[in-house]
Structure formats: structure tokens, C-alpha cells
Amino acid sequence: MDAWEAVKHTDTIVPDIDELMQVTITKGNVYSYSPRTNEIVLGESMDSCDYVFHFKPIISFREMPNLGSFIINVTEQCNLRCSYCCYSGIYENTRIHGNKSIDKDDVPDLLGFIENNARKYPVNISFYGGEPLLKYDLLQSIILQSEQRWGDDVSFYVATNGVMLDEQRIDWLVDHNVMIAISIDGTAAFHDRFRRIQQGEGSFGKANAALSYLKRRYPEYRKEKVLVLTTVTSFDDLAPLAESWHRDPVLYDIAPLLFLLWHQILKKV
């Protein structure tokens, strides 16, 4: 609570918490978070709350005593066009897919920033995008330079759609102890409805092949260092998705990290 404090009946003019937790998509639907009931509801929330959040200004990142995790957005580019993606263009006030990427010449300064501000070790560096494996050479360079700088006092995490996760890249990431998070939304019938490459073809085959190789070649590593991220857009899908999941020879013994896409679910209620 060092960085912020909850102030009751404050005279400071601060937006109400309800206003801070509303999302409007381009189709005009508004979804709100109700802090009293901990629910996401369709429309503007009528829930009243006695508390507003007043943020103390942070002079520098070094004031955060537990700062040890850093996210590097390697690139805005992506080889998929998932229909529910936060960068798909259907959400207001968010960017869309772009062409910007980190320049390799900026990596030393980037790692210098992390070193100057990290207060908790080992430092964790996470790679996101877009699709970070589109800039695989850059990702490798950041990891190698980080290992030279911190040795065993650094860990890595990469979130990927799995399409470019071939055996050679898996071998390299495993050799460097990188935690891998692969997005798989169920078996092909579920996954390929939303997660398609730019040309419209489903991406399940390649993502599933990457996970299959991890299970065969690195079974213990898969259990300890590989996550499967699954997005569900309808409650109606939960039972059939689970049934097909447990029949799949690759997925059956993997417990996914489940995300419920509330703005899609609420539209169907």
C-alpha cells in the first residue's frame, strides 16, 4: 500500500472507482465492474462505493521496494488475427496491431534501465507482443546479454501463440530455462474459431505440434515450465470444450490457465 492509499470521503477530486472500471467497445456496448459485488455487468454500474483511490506520485521506480519483474513488449507485429484480441480494433482507447519493434541497438540501454531500477532478485524478464517470436533473434540477444549481466540471477518468460515455436527454438528456450506460455483455446474446433493467421487459416495444428514436442522431448520441463493459456468466450463452450480436451492425446493431462472473456459472454446473456 506504499504507492497508493484508499481515502474515504476525501475532498480530493478523483474519478469514482466505477468510472475507472468501464470498458466501451466499438459496437457501443458498455461493461462495468461492480466493486461491491465483484461482478462485471452489462451497462453502466449503478453500484455506489464509498471509496476512491488516491495515488501518491512516484518520483522514480526505485521507490518500489519489491520491483523485480519487467515486461518487454518486443514488437507490435503479430502473425495471427484473433477476433477477440485486445489489439484487434474492437476496443476503444487501445492500440491496434502495428509495425513497431525494439531496436537491437537499444538493448544495452534497456537492460541498464532494468539493472538501475530492480530491487528484487532474481530479476524476471517477460517477453510479450504482438508475437515476440517474430523477433526471435532480438529475443535471443536480450536473453544472452541478460545472462552475461546477471548470470543465474535472472529468469525469463515468453508468451507466444505457438505458431513459430518449432523444435529448434524450443530446444534453445529450454537450454536457457525460459518459461513458455502457449495460447491454446481447446481442440481445433474451438481454437480455430478465433485464433487464425492473417490469411484466415486456423493456427491449432502448429501450436499443438509445439506442445506435443515439449511433452515428448521434455516431459518434466513441460510440467514445471510450460503454461497453456485458454480463453473461453461462452459458458456454453465449457462442458464440450472440457470433454474434447480430455479426449485429445496432447491436451488430456494438462490443466490450462483459463480466461473468461467477459465482454463476449455478457453479450449472450
Summarize it.
By secondary structure, the protein is of the alpha/beta class. Helix content is 31%, strand content 21%.
Would you kindly provide a written description of the structure presented here, covering whatever features stand out?
- By secondary structure, the chain is α/β, with parallel strands linked by helices.
- It folds into two domains: 4-55, no CATH class; 64-267, TIM Barrel.
- Helix content is 31%, strand content 21%.
- The protein contains nine helices and eleven strands.
- The chain has helices spanning 17-20, 107-117, 136-150, 167-175, 188-194, 204-217, 219-225, 238-247, 262-267; strands at 4-8, 22-24, 30-34, 39-42, 51-55, 69-73, 123-128, 154-160, 178-183, 226-232, 257-260.
- The strands form three sheets. Strands 6-7-8-9-10-11 form a six-stranded parallel β-sheet. The protein has a three-stranded antiparallel β-sheet with strand order 2-3-4. The protein has a two-stranded antiparallel sheet with strand order 1-5.
- α6 (204-217) packs across α7 (219-225).
- The chain is globular, with a radius of gyration of 21 Å.
Tags for this model:
269 residues, alpha/beta, TIM Barrel, 2 domains, six-stranded parallel beta sheet, 11 strands, 31% helix, globular
